[in-house]
Design a protein that fits this description.
20 strands; 6-stranded antiparallel beta barrel; binds flavin-adenine dinucleotide; FAD/NAD(P)-binding domain; 25% strand; 7-stranded mixed beta sheet; 13 helices; alpha+beta
Length: 415
């Protein structure tokens, strides 16, 4: 019977990083078991086909701040392998990367296929064996501390070490649970918001830079500042995706019903009142529609907001009544929308939840419950906001798990 030194379950980003790292550091017999026919399918579709590999955030503390779940534990990992290390890792293995103006890192070729090919080529070159259509159903720990892995056809494979890299797939959670781990209920993160505000689709495509938005769920408030995009179903853009991540659990509990509050102006009440009074005085002959009080409001958006405020857009500024001015100020400072559900798809959908991080050593990614069992990637209760942070976690946890298995392997072979 062949006994592998390492079997990685899941042929995604994290699984491949784990296998390549272990192979490059001396581990001899490694196998990746992938349940589907396709390897690294999520890498292929990521970043709109470009794959946002990581984020140019070089300081571990700052990098860790981009993970609503993972917190202090991630710092232990990032102190060993962070974004700069990932960038170097890929460059040294032939994948040229570029940093865009918003600090997101992409392949120079703008093709996710090159990320896949880099990982696959390096795995094969180092002798990693890959089986597709091997869907792992069961893992048994033997009395002599080996693992027996069974697939749906009851084919079995035996290994000394095992890394679970099954992403957000429920089967991976089930396998981790069977080996003694607690699973934090998986819920979606990074999604857009649907609003039933019927006229909103007139503003579809309008994007606004750097504004404050807030969601209120029961009595809890989550705030963020960033770019907002109005879509034909509601709201999207980085500001919304980040809020969805910050409030992923609370939104799930409330069936994605909440209030979204948009502050269209950086001015406070008195400043905005003064500004509007000045327009009334100096440009009173102009119609409301022809003079927007805030530069960031596009014409379409301004017309929509005037309609929402029930103020006649053809009215002259001089004729704006005192109560209308109050409505205008209050709406521009606190514009409220009822969010009815999640949007139809996520730009960078990830699972929040998974294997409890308190049961894993974040320096080696080894289970604190079951020796010889390791984790890498999205299977853990770690998730980041958009911008390359979710792949960075795959590279970091994969590298650490691969290193740790190789240290165990080398210790045993040198004895
Ligand atoms: C549309 C989209 C775009 C994204 N874009 C980005 C981006 O640009 N940047 C970024 O940082 N993040 C992005 N993400 C998130 C990122 O793709 C994930 O965080 C990342 O792919 C997780 O990698 P993983 O290896 O942990 O899991 P996965 O990629 O999910 O891989 C797990 C693998 O395990 C296999 N598997 C599961 N169960 C079993 C089993 N029982 N037996 C055998 N095999 C099994 C699955 O088939 C799968 O191939 C995006 C996600 C989506 C959906």
């Amino acid at each position: 019977m062949d006994i592998f030194d390492l079997v990685v379950i899941g042929g995604g980003a994290a699984g491949f990083m784990t296998a390549v790292t272990a192979a490059e550091n001396g581990v001899k017999s490694i196998k990746i078991l992938e349940g589907s026919l396709k390897l690294m399918e999520k890498v292929r579709i990521s970043g709109g086909g470009r794959c946002n590999v990581t984020h140019a955030s070089w300081i571990p503390n700052e990098l860790a701040e981009n993970y609503p779940r993972g917190g202090i534990k991630l710092l232990e990992s990032f102190n060993r392998f962070a974004a700069g290390d990932a960038l170097d890792w890929f460059e040294k293995r032939g994948l040229s990367l570029k940093i865009e103006s918003d600090q997101r890192v992409f392949p120079v070729s703008d093709s996710s296929l090159d990320v896949i090919s880099c990982l696959k080529k390096n795995a094969i070159a180092k002798g990693v064996k890959i089986s597709t259509k091997f869907f792992v159903k069961e893992i048994l720990k033997t009395p002599d501390n080996l693992f027996t892995i069974l697939n749906t056809d009851k084919d079995s494979i035996t290994t000394k070490n095992i890394v679970l890299s099954t992403g957000g797939h429920p089967s991976g959670h089930k396998l981790a649970k069977s080996l003694g781990h607690r699973i934090i209920k998986p819920v979606p993160s990074l999604f857009t918001f649907t609003s039933k505000e019927t006229q909103l689709n007139e503003c579809s495509g309008v994007s606004i830079k750097n504004i404050d938005i807030e969601i209120q769920i029961n009595n809890k408030s989550f705030k963020n500042r960033g770019d907002l995009l109005i879509t034909h179903w509601g709201f999207s853009g980085p500001a919304v995706l980040k809020l969805s991540s910050l409030a992923a659990r609370e939104l799930f509990d409330q069936k994605y019903k909440c209030k979204l509050i948009i502050k269209w102006s950086d001015l406070e009440y008195e400043e905005l009142k003064e500004k509007i009074n000045k327009i009334k005085l100096n440009n009173g002959k102009l119609n409301l529609i022809n003079l927007r009080p805030l530069p960031l409001l596009t014409k379409r958006l301004w017309i929509f907001l005037l309609n929402k405020m029930n103020i006649n857009k053809d009215k002259k500024w001089a004729d704006l009544l005192a109560n209308e001015r109050e409505i205008m100020i209050n709406s521009l400072l606190k514009d409220i929308y009822n969010i009815s559900s999640k949007g139809p798809f996520g730009e960078e959908f990830v699972t929040s939840g998974g294997v409890s991080i308190n049961e894993v050593d974040f320096k080696s990614m080894e289970s604190l419950i079951c020796p010889g069992l390791f984790f890498s990637g999205e299977i853990l209760n770690v998730d980041g906001i958009t911008g390359g942070f979710n792949f960075q976690h795959c590279w970091t946890s994969g590298w650490l798990a691969g290193q740790a298995v190789s240290e165990l392997f080398n210790k045993v072979t040198n004895q």
